[in-house]
Design a protein that fits this description.
By secondary structure, this protein is an alpha+beta fold. It is built from two helices and two strands.
């Protein structure tokens, strides 16, 4: 889960590109459904999406991100911004 901030923090993650531009709308609709964007009347979406700056090898680009849209009270803050490293460290014997 990630929340936007005005601080100078980065998230380490994976970036995907839709190979067939004609399928972009379909692919995003599938992701929106999976991420809980589409909800029933009166429900709060689990995530909200926005376009953000992303960096690969110091080259800037734009990409969609799904920001968490619920309370994160009591959840750990990942100072590294790297959930994969966090899970590896957490699961070490």
């Amino acid at each position: 889960m990630a929340l936007p901030t005005n601080d100078d923090h980065f998230i380490t993650g994976e970036l995907y590109e839709v190979n067939n531009a004609q399928e972009f709308s379909w692919a995003m609709a599938q992701l929106d459904d999976y991420e809980g964007i589409n909800v029933e009347s009166g429900e709060v979406p689990l995530y909200r999406k926005a376009i953000v700056d992303v960096y690969q090898d110091a080259v800037a680009d734009k990409a969609w991100i799904y920001w968490y849209n619920q309370s994160v009270e009591g959840m750990p803050v990942l100072e590294t911004g790297d959930v994969f490293r966090y899970m590896q460290d957490k699961n070490k014997p």
